[in-house]
Specification:
The protein has 186 residues and is α+β, with helices and mostly antiparallel strands. It contains seven helices and six strands; from the N terminus they run ββββββααααααα.
Amino acid sequence: MKFAVRYPQRLKENTREGQWAVEDERQIVKPFSDGSHLEYGKGQFDDWCVYLVSPDGARVAPRDIDCFKVLKVLAAKHGVERLYKDYVSLYEVTGKAVEEKVLQQIAALAAAYPPEARLRADKLFTILYMAMIAEEHKAGTRLGKRIKRLGVHRLLVESAGAQNAARFLDGRRAEAIALLCEERGF
């Protein structure tokens, strides 16, 4: 399956801060079989907010806790090791831009799940992929996508609850978070 990745095609440089930002134009990153799609858009902090857009046009920015709850459900049905392994395979190929080959990898991962879980897995892994890319673009980041991996690791490997995994890093300094990542091998 070939995806019509049209993002990021229109970037503008904010020369004052030396950063790249998405122009206001919305662009579909990945459409789904139920008529929904994912896109980046302007959020509270930057232009890299991930939105799930329903067929009726309603836009929702999935939160970490939302993703973690879905991860827990899928892990209970399909195994923690499988979910974590699939997530890490995406983590390892995530850079600063959406790549068609990674979207295809996500589709292949999702297709390996039972039919009733495929769409859910496809959306979840794509949201996590896009969120990792967004983390790579945060101004002054020293953690990048590692911050997402730490949350997923805490949830799946360390068996934390979704709320705990989503709030675990609140109030911690970047240096302390980096040390937590290093202790876990990433």
